[in-house]
Amino acid sequence: MAKTIVCDVISAEGEIFSGEVELVVAPGAQGELGIAPNHAPLLTHLVAGPVRLFENDEEGVFYVSGGIMEVQPKRVTILADMAMRAHDLDEVAAQEARKRAEEALLDQKSEMQFSTASAQLAEAAAQLRTIQALRKKMGRPS
Description:
The chain is of the alpha+beta class. It is built from two helices and ten strands; from the N terminus they run ββββββββββαα.
């Protein structure tokens, strides 16, 4: 039997996932983080992107829009601004949001508009990366 760690994924709306997993892979501010059982304590900022949970050769994919992750030797807690299961993401809406943000970046009139458009572009790109991670997990082409 493989060693496991308890993982909780929580958003402002409530708990999205709680259970034992063998590995957590999350989008940290400095790159992807892999968390296994008995990991050293850690508190880190998360950026928008996919969170992948591995259990018994199965992979669960979630999207987080950012937040924090606390790691203890036997528990990982992800507190996300917004989180959802990857299969609930709307690919068409994410592609349209990316297109609107790219157009807004080209037609910038103020620094505030640039910042807003940049954030929207990053969020749409992160959602599309999460959808791609889900497809990869399911063995479908991108």
